[in-house]
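Mods, move this if it's the wrong board.
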Amino acid sequence: MRRASSLILGLIVLTLAGSAAAQSPEPQVSAFSPQGTVKQVRQAQAHFSLPMEPLGDPRLTDPFDVACAESGAGRWVDKSIWVYDFARDLPAGLRCTFTLRAGLQALSGRALGGPRAFTFSTGGPAIRASQPREGSGSIDEDQAFVLEVDAPATAASVERHAGFRVDALPDLIGLRILTGEPRETILKARYGPRPRPDGVLVVQARQRFPSKAKVSLLWGKGVAAVSGVETDQDQALAFEVRGPLTLSFECLRENPRAQCVPVTPMRLNFGVQVAWSDARRIVLMGPDGKRWPAEREGDEGPFVTGVRFKGPFPEKASFQLEIPAGLKDDAGRLPVNAATFPLTVKTEAFPPFAKFAARFGILERYADPALPVTLRNLEPVVQLKMLGIPSGPAGLRDPAGLREWMRGKVLRVAPDRAGEMLPWLRKLAAAGRESSMLATLPAGSPVKAFGLPKPGGADAMEVVGIPLKDPGLYLVEIESARLGASLLGKAKPMYVPAGALVTNLAVHFKWGRASSLVWVTTLDHAQPVRAAQVTVFDCNGGVLWKGATDAHGVARPTGLPYRNGAPQCPITYVEGNETSGYLGGGLFVTAQTSDPPGVAGYSIVLSGLLILPFDAVPPMYRLPPDLREVEIPFQTSRQASGEAMAAGLTNHVWELSELVA
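Not the wrong board. Structure tokens:
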């Protein structure tokens, strides 16, 4: 009984083993890459489902017979992965087949099943580059295309399966392959002495393209390489045909119905390439036979796409724009609108003009400070308003600050409220052209309104100086109905604002991580200022530190936030008015003196606006001996001397007492 049980158990074990062997999948190639159509192949790889060879055996053999026009070598990466490395990236037009060798067995001795042959192709010829380049918007009506393909293509298959699709035409336009002298001329111009790619083609449509048409070069399915491998999908390159040679005149105008502004250039555009030797003969004839020669635009070269005539020109005058006979473009085409020349063009009167040198600036107190403004073609008496935020003993007598005045209380800036200038600087930076920045001031505000005379008359272009004798921050605004009618196109005035700080102090600020430093000097003599009251604000006007300068004009603020920890105050600048300074963050530093020798009253200096690095390398100044290891840049802008300003900037400086209405 015991022997029978053992025999039955042995039979069961053998049966289970045989069943497991029968159910085990046969060894086969579980993955092969690449397959199908693949470009730029360098390696083929086969993965087997079971180990095939003992790793490290020098007698390892390749499992595949390779049929390919390109050479290579196989190797085992491990027991079940085999790769075949080609000697180079395979060109297009190849078909390679890998076939498992007859009788190939796995390491276990079992024969391989599954698929036995694997094929891939590098595809038929494809366009790698073209001249003109794909996307060009200025091809000729009879353009010839130089095509660089990744494998030589048969001429018959190209002419059969390639062509041009034009958006204005229903049918495909066939192409022809250029040969002989026309081909050689084009390739010589394209490559010169450089080697030419293998299989380069020069093709051309069998009919001219319509002007300004959108064209697609279709490299269709079925274009065959010399080896017989064909493309299996279409390839399209988009182009656009250039327009005809059309001469178009342009100039700057105040509005679409106006004539040319006489102070800006006039231009004649071609839209296509014209030889400079021909374009330079175009001339603009003005009053009394005066000639303005054509100037080239763009880079130096034999061709140009337009010319310009540099102003200024006489105002309210008529001109004749003349072109030479036989003017042609690079394709030999005549202008389609040549009959409109000579072309008559006219200029308007010089446009109204009112411009300050900048939205905001600093004027030296002891250099006869005057705010220059350039005026032209405005009213004989220009209406001007000025809001002065005084700095001096009057400002010290009232503890109320600017914020209370903005609520309609007082207009005074006390020494401990210097940071209240920030709202005005923000208002100045955000001021537009169509509304007055002073319109919301309460009744009774100390706004001086007066007319600014123009001795040369309304039409003359003059630089007029507005004197600002007392220290402080000034907001100035010009109001002109002529500017509004001309530049805004509306029957309403236009406003031109500016701000100026009159001071004799300069504040140099070094913002450090562990410590910071403020150095106060005079503008006229560059001497240190002792006992100057220094206040550091954040952009919200909150006081971060207060103190006084020592005998060397130096103060050392402590407890300031890091740069990335300072508050941010969003602000929208209008018309690029960043000349008002950076008001959206950082620190705002002021210095003021009560009445030191040589300085009358007190001044307020805006230094927190200068925390960003300068584009230019500033001069370096050495501090007093006890600070000789520290160098900081002289961070302030200086106005020219009073004599230079009077001679070079202003024609007229008026006393305010003469101007106040």
